[in-house]
Amino acid sequence: MRLSQLGEFGLIEAIARTTPKGSGVRIGIGDDAAWVSHPRQSSLITSDLLIEGIHFDLRWTTMFDLGYKTLAVNLSDIAAMGGISAYLMLSLGIPSHFDSKKIAEFYRGIHSLAARSGVTLIGGDTNIAPLFLACACVIGHPSKHPLTRSGAKTGDDIYVTGTLGDAALALQILQSKSKRAHGKTIGQLMQRHHRPTARLTAGSILAEKRVASAMIDISDGLIQDLGHICKASGVGAEISADDIPLSSAYRAVAGKDDLRYALSGGEDYELLFCAPHSHRDDIEKLQRRAKVSITRIGRCVASRAGISVIAASGKPMALDAPGHDHFKKSANNARRRRSA
Ligand SMILES: [Mg+2]
Fold first, then answer.
1. Reported pTM
2. Inter-residue contact 160 to 271 (CB < 8 Å)
3. Which of 158, 164, 220, 294 could form a disulfide with 262 if both were Cys (CB 3.0 to 4.6 A apart)?
4. pLDDT of 9-50, one tens digit each?
5. What is the whole-number distance in angstroms between the Cα of residue 327 and the centre of ligand 1?
């Protein structure tokens, strides 16, 4: 049905009908504001805005995947503080030519991840817009000791979960309309790009066990996001290029020596954290419970040393493109606009 026939209130009713009632929700969609319970006296709150043509391209992104990713990127921010996501507010700008089927597909993507993550949609807004845009806000419950970017100390180890660079490599393939865009290997890269996995369990265990000193999720590239930890903590960082975890698909397509996507590509949504040397055994053991690999990639050094990536030869690599910045026009941004 065309949205002009359904109308704003018809659309809201349709969204409310397909939204499960989650725990802790006293009043969800339909009143002036949502009313929810909090098991603790404080909350973690994050928001992300995704705009068509800047963050995603509907020529190669399905509405289901876009819904999934809209929630995933917000869950990743709560995971990066070690919290548990609980509630989602979602506001959409919808072009007039969209029909209700497309919007329903977007919400199916949202609900498929929400159900698995214990998150309930509790409200939001819808309006007409020249392009499709989605603004999500997730409210989460903090751990007793939320992890911030500012606790790293000189000498701490630096770790990442999972593997890096797959999502950015997939985007490069999509944008170049490469003939390689087929096959199982490419499919693995595309999966990482379209449906990123927020590391919810790893994040909450790291906070609960108090093994990490600082943490962030990698949304804008390893070097860029490591820079945020370094700045907030007042440390520098030395990364060993050989230790950066790459997937088999990445090795097959880009080769193990092309680290551009792993270092500066965005949208990995892996966790990057620091921890004292004395916690190495605990972190090793934690991998099984968190169901994700965790790799030590370097260490924190004095802040004056800045960030360096040391190649196998022992020499520092040139870092010309640190990662994504929405407002700075760098060669890197021009080459790779963040896009779902
Ligand atoms: Mg983040």
1. 0.90
2. yes
3. 164
4. 888 888 888 888 888 898 888 888 898 988 878 999 999 999
5. 17
